[in-house]
Write a structure and sequence with these properties.
By secondary structure, the chain is mostly helical. It has 8 helices and no strands. Helix 1 runs parallel beside helix 7, helix 2 runs antiparallel to helix 5 and helix 4 runs antiparallel to helix 8. It is found in: Membrane.
Length: 185
Amino acid sequence: MEALLTSTLSVAIAEIGDKTQLLALLLICRFRKPWPIIAGMLAATLLNHAGAAWIGDFISRWLDPKVMTYLVAAAFVAMAIWILIPDKMDDEESSLDKYGPFMATFVLFFIAEIGDKTQIATVLLAAKYDSLFQVVAGTTLGMMLANVPVVLIGKLGADKLPLKGIRIACALLFVGLGVTTLIFV
């Protein structure tokens, strides 16, 4: 259960202000069909994070558990720093419009997650915990918790959110996760 909760919390926090949240907002403004967009996000995240978790599990078999703990703690602190750097959107979505909201969302979310902090978090969490299912379920749940409200609320008030303050609070939470990881070595 710890793997599920930590995975959910870590990814939900990391996702705040991320490019995939901006992508979710862009897609709902473009297509105005929330359910195909949500389904595309879910499918892309499950596929992407399942692959990332498999890689994390593979890595954990080769590293000493104590070394892995230090790497996970350092990665949480690195993610705190990464969160402070705002994401920028690319304008590559227009060529996918013809495939509809589900396919456009699936392709764009899958690509946006490659090398993203939430994918890296998934690799690290899978390396730390023995339950791939709980990690993938948790990271996917975290992504959905952070992105579905963006889709459902849409453009209402999105320009008024204090993203800099939100990023700082999230960075502090990740530093706390890194310190907690080291304390419980």
